[in-house]
Amino acid sequence: MSIDKAIHRQAFALGVISVAIGIFVGELTSNLHSAWKSPVDSLGNWIISVIPHSIERLAITLFRTHDKGFLVATILLVALLLGGLAGDLLLRGKRKFGYTIVGLETIFGALTVLARPHAGLTAIVPSLASGLAIALVLFVVLGRVKPQQIEVNAPVQLKSRRQVLKYAGGASVLGGLMLVTGQSVKTHGLNVIKRLAIKLPAATHPLPPLPADPATSIAGLSTLITPNNQFYQIDTAINAPIIDVDSWTLSINGMVKNPITLNYSDLLKRPLFELDDTMSCVSNPVGGNLVGNARWLGCRLDDLIREASPLSSADQILSSSGDGFGAGFPLNLLDGRDAMIAVGMNGQPLPIRHGFPARVIVPGLYGYVSATKWVTNIELTRFDIKQGFWISRGWSQLGPIKMESRIDYPTDGATVPAGKFRFAGVAWAPLSGIASVQLGIDGVWKDATLGPSLSGTTWRQWWFDWDTSHGNHQIEVRAVNKGGEVQTQAIADVSPNGASGWHTIHISSK
Ligand SMILES: Nc1nc2c(c(=O)[nH]1)N[C@H]1C(S)=C(S)[C@@H](COP(=O)(O)O)O[C@H]1N2
Ligand SMILES: [Mo]
């Protein structure tokens, strides 16, 4: 390789290092003050808010719940590559171009910070710190090298190529690690400690202890209660918003006669009840696992709304989390069902990623129209004035959870030993509850055995024993609710209001 080429590589690597350091400085600074926002986060949030619905759906499909990790990785990669380009341009003596790239990168990041809801001017402090750090590194190292110096002789201030590349690699890895650490410190940090110290009061209206879980003895069956760390997680937030539980408040306002504001301890002082409820994401495909069952602890939402005394003109309860997310459902759905402001999940304070300190849970509704995590505001309003986050993005205004059933075991394409075999799965049919589950084996329908019934809005486990004969088999499942309604066979995509159809798998017995 010619010296020239080697030097350009070094300049590129140094550009990459400078941006890695810049990102590191940006993340570090954003941890210092809650009003100072991370440019990487903001850029991610901004992209999520502007990309077309179809691309976002594709990303979620391709990367499942890792779509945001992929987004952040892409942002980092592009930023680092632009840094490399700037480094190379500086070395070529095209200083203006080099600094312009870095400058534009910084300004763009800062603009996306300002685009965030409620971002003040000081929110761009980390962007500025980051831009400054990049410029400084570039200026100190590369800005001093004169182009002709390079052409004449070997690297001037630059060490051997291998060494520099090693440093570049090291710095990028370090930068990445710092980014991750910084972000998790920020997200979790103090609040993790505060959350751990919380002891939730016992429910004023507790539920009976949970029955024995058939899943302990049935292979592949979903557990009756989904453990918190296995509960699916869906939200638009790159990071959970930073909330200090001691200063957090929840306001109920809008079209009401008596606006109410509660803090965390006000909430815990209210009568608390337990609710077993299965929540599903509208994006859960037939047979998918964006659904989980938990025992929630919280206070009644209808009581709170009644105290606020809605005007007769209001027709929507729109909850929001202060990070741009909002979910709305009809006021008249508070029809006695156990909607709650939840503070506990399976015996623990809400996990941060599931909405700590508080979230909304409305039995029978998909999460996108109801289950606002990190909730700070509940506005009584009208559908013709305001809508939740996903409504303008092509999803239905109303989101009742559809009756569904799933085969957990075996999985599609499995080979099972011929002879005695136990199929197992779960089914849910809010609000009435599951009356029966039928398994179709090569077109012949049989009733499955049902597990315990917790409430009309929780899933029920089912299993079915069969003597499998050699060969290929098609297995289908369908549920029947307590009103006698059979789960529809009609296949619907998740958009706009949830998937439907019978979960079908193919297996072979040997
Ligand atoms: N603040 C906030 N709350 C939110 C969301 C969100 O993006 N932001 N997503 C909703 C959606 S689409 C679903 S399905 C549920 C998922 O809740 P979970 O992550 O606790 O399973 O949260 C709802 N609440
Ligand atoms: Mo969702």
Notes on the structure:
With 510 residues, the chain is α+β, with helices and mostly antiparallel strands. The protein folds into three domains: 5-194, no CATH class; 222-393, Sulfite Oxidase, Chain A, domain 2 (Alpha-Beta Complex), CATH 3.90.420.10; 404-509, Immunoglobulin-like. It is 33% helix and 22% strand. It has helices at residues 3-30, 39-50, 53-63, 67-91, 95-114, 125-142, 147-152, 161-187, 189-197, 264-269, 301-308, and strands at residues 249-254, 260-263, 273-280, 291-300, 316-320, 326-330, 340-345, 348-349, 359-361, 377-381, 404-409, 415-416, 419-428, 434-441, 444-447, 449-450, 460-468, 471-481, 504-509. A five-stranded mixed beta sheet has the order 2-1-10-5-6. Strands 3, 4, 7, 8 and 9 form a five-stranded antiparallel beta sheet that branches. Strands 12-19-18-14-15 form a five-stranded mixed beta sheet, with no helix packed on it. Helix 4 runs antiparallel to helix 5. The radius of gyration is 27 Å and the shape is globular. The protein starts with a helix and ends with a strand. Ligand MTE binds next to loops.
Topology:
Blueprint: H1 3-30, H2 39-50, H3 53-63, H4 67-91, H5 95-114, H6 125-142, H7 147-152, H8 161-187, H9 189-197, E1 249-254, E2 260-263, H10 264-269, E3 273-280, E4 291-300, H11 301-308, E5 316-320, E6 326-330, E7 340-345, E8 348-349, E9 359-361, E10 377-381, E11 404-409, E12 415-416, E13 419-428, E14 434-441, E15 444-447, E16 449-450, E17 460-468, E18 471-481, E19 504-509
Parallel strand pairs: 1-10, 12-19
Antiparallel strand pairs: 1-2, 3-4, 4-7, 5-6, 5-10, 7-8, 7-9, 11-13, 13-17, 14-15, 14-18, 16-17, 18-19
Helix pairs in contact: 1-4, 1-6, 1-8, 2-4, 2-5, 4-5, 5-6, 8-9
The structure holds the ligand Nc1nc2c(c(=O)[nH]1)N[C@H]1C(S)=C(S)[C@@H](COP(=O)(O)O)O[C@H]1N2 and molybdenum atom (MO).
Residues 234, 281-283, 367-368 line the site of molybdenum atom.
